[in-house]
Amino acid sequence: MSKSYWGPKSVTFWLVGVVTLLMLYLGVRGFVQPEAAIRDFGLPLHDNEDNYLVHIKADRDLFIGIFLLALMILRMRKALLVVMLTSILMPTIDAILVITNAADTTPSWIHIFTALYGLVVGWMLYREEQRATTVSNHNGNWCHLLVRISDRSAPQKTVQSFVSLRWDFSTELPFHLHQR
After folding, report:
1. Cα Rg of the chain (Å, integer)
2. Cα–Cα distance between 152 and 43 in angstroms, integer?
3. Among 7, 16, 111, 171, which one has the highest count of C-beta atoms within 10 angstroms of its own C-beta?
4. How far apart are CA 142 and CA 165, in angstroms?
5. What percentage of the chain reaches a pLDDT higher than 70?
6. CA atoms within 13 A on the CB side of 146
7. Mean per-residue pLDDT for 67-92?
8. 9-13, 113-117, 153-157 — which is least confidently predicted?
9. CB-CB neighbours of 116 under 10 Å
10. Burial class (CB within 10 angstroms; exposed 0-12, middle 13-18, buried 19+) of 12
């Protein structure tokens, strides 16, 4: 398996998958069972008429889950890296809201754990991306040529040598290759 490959055979793919499924679950649950969802979030719902506030959070969670799923299907590791590291702010703020507004601050630990999980997965994605970039730069841009040098005065003295050239293949070659 190539180090630049990212998909179902990668551990980070499944770690991101856990977050994706959790966000989809939380989004659907927020619409189906808003009272239970906000209670498990860690904040009290004082009036059932305030369910629309829970629906706003459910909408956010559902969108994030669908967005992560799309990035996973498209195998966009670098984009997921950015999303994972920037979205750490959400569970951090959620934990602060629970600690400052709830009578029971025990649910705040799930938000803190989620932020730490996102940090670890983001770091792992970063490491994989760095390794994939390094492998790509070292393997993809090297061209090995077998050069045969002949001495016309002594045809039996033919020297073969390998020459390695580094070339950016995204640009045009500065010369034309002719076949003989």
Report:
1. 27
2. 88
3. 16
4. 6
5. 72
6. 3
7. 96
8. 153-157
9. 13
10. buried
Amino acid letter, 15? L
Report residue 16 as tokens. 């991101």
Question: How far apart, in whole angstroms, are the C-alpha atoms of residue 35 and residue 39?
Answer: 6
Which residue shows structure tokens 């390695």?
164
Closest CA to 15 of 121, 103, 104, 86: 121
Residue with token string 């009290």: 44
pLDDT in tens, 97-125: 999 998 888 889 999 999 999 999 999 99
Give strand ranges (E) for the chain: 142-150, 158-166
Is the Cβ–Cβ distance between 87 and 64 less than 8 Å? yes
Give the rounded distance of the alpha carbon of 154 from its chain centre.
60
Global confidence as pTM: 0.71
